[in-house]
Request: fold
Amino acid sequence: MFETTSVGSFPKPPYLTKARTANSKGEISDAELAALERQATEEWIKFQEEIGIDILVHGEMERGDMTTYFAERLEGYGVSGLVRSYGNRYYRKPVIESTLVRTEPMALDAYRFAQSLTNKPVKGMLTGPYTMCDWSFDEFYPSRRDAVLALAEVVRGEVRDLELAGARYIQIDEPAISTRPSEIDLAIEAMGIVTKGVKAMTISHICYGDFATIYPRILDLPVDQLDLEFANSGFANLEIFRHPKFTKKVAVGVVDVHSHVIETKEQVKEGIRRALGVFDPEQVMFDPDCGLKTRTVEEAKDKLKVLVDAVGEIKHEMGID
Amino acid sequence: MFETTLVGNQPKIIETPGTPNLRLARNQFDRGKINAEQLEEILQETIRQTVRDQVAAGIHRVTDGRIRWDDPVTPFAAAHDGFEIGGLIRFFDNNVYYRRPTITGPVRFVRSAVAEDFRLAAKAAGRPVLAALCGPFSMAKFCTDTNYNNSHDLYSDCARLVRGELEALVDAGADWVQLDEPFLGFHPEEIGPACDAIAAAVRGVKTKVFIYTYFAPVAKVIKRLWDLPVAMIGADCASSPANIDALCEGPSAMGRAFGLIDARNTRLESADQLARTLDRIAESGADKWSQCWITPSAALEFLPYKNAVAKMKRMTESVAAFTGAPVVN
Reply:
């Protein structure tokens, strides 16, 4: 109850950003880059432990885009030319070119390494099949349904490997679900393939869409917890979840990852109080709205600190610490 | 019977040999390594090149490629009074983000954000150019409003701003102007106020206005759109194939634009598939409509440059094959 966690990505320290650029130009080896990714992961694990986060993430130091990372490791995927993400930022969008086949675990090494650094639980982090499809070009499968269900089998393999490795929390991000309500049934069917029979706590992060159009149907998504953003909308979208009653566990986003401004402790506490007006204390965890990778390292750390401090004070006020 | 044009941003990374690297230039400008004049020179050359690429692909009515636009709203928020550019937010259901403006004061026209680029494109094109800007309803919807708290006044002021832009484009010589209104299909409950705002912006203006909406079905709003004092209605028929029928059923005096080429997937439409769709549209009475344009479904900037070029060519070649008129480039 009232655990603190994070959604997934953290900003890469400047030395790692430089190293990724150097690696892409062939100036440093993959092994040298991997060593720096491990160094950055260690720093983020240490920081999360120091400030008292309860359920840790490895921070995704090895990943650029959450779809492209997996696509680059799957047989059947190619990458496109550059497309714009925002402003002057570009990325190479994955292209499904033939039958998708998982030839090796993709998220396992990062999980194992991060978990080896701490006694606290670390989440296994995956991108869900619906979002993988929605954020790829598809030149192969005859329909979106065919592509999503093929990806569900791929992600299912990842979940199985993470669970066998001891992951107690497995997060399967589906941020695209909230943007195309007409396909919610397909997303639910695919997640059913991914999580069937899994004993670990399963989580799905969804953000920046029109939640009203998928609620309460989203409660049928076969995961234990939904991780949702609220701070960016000023908690206005909380009201959507008041009726009918929210029946799953929920991780409530209480700091805005799209703002440079660090929330005050009182602002975060007010957000928590508002969330507790809708969700039961037994249901909730608290975290940032989304991955913090677009913030600076300092901004991300400050946002995590104020989150932990605010949750701590609320717990104290409620006599549950 | 059919003409081709484009309805959104073109890719900014142009791979035609000799074209300056706009992405690199923006990075250099941000780091202070080039000045505003140098960046402007590269922006203008990129606009000229995107026009040349469209001409080479045989597009009948080209555009300036909206090279300065990161999205449909921030160019206006930056140029006019009443807006502050805010944090990143997802652009509809795409893995693309824009900085959502906040309306913090009265929305007022200051200076045109688009007229100069229209002039530049017109000079480079040697053929008709379609100007474009954000429509008043979507301009309001793209933003967070902390000033009006009253949609009527907000839409009215956005309409006045759009009117100012339209008049600037008329002065620049634009004979056709596209108003982007992607939110129309997503908010059928507001179609009345939305149409009031569009009508207020365009009534009596001395250019033909084309309303284009994308990503959403238009069945619930199309009847109101036919009553607008505009010359053409267009819709994204790749995201919502049912929009083809909705567009076919309108009054013959109104032009139509069919967004047939999927701007959000690299898979190239087959020539056969396009021919069948053009045949279906033609059989619906297209020869009686005032205009019939064939377009991509949305901005080709969702695609890498080479795919965007391939899609433009497939579109113009399919139309040429159907009409029997050669591709002119």
Summary: The mean pLDDT of chain B is 96.
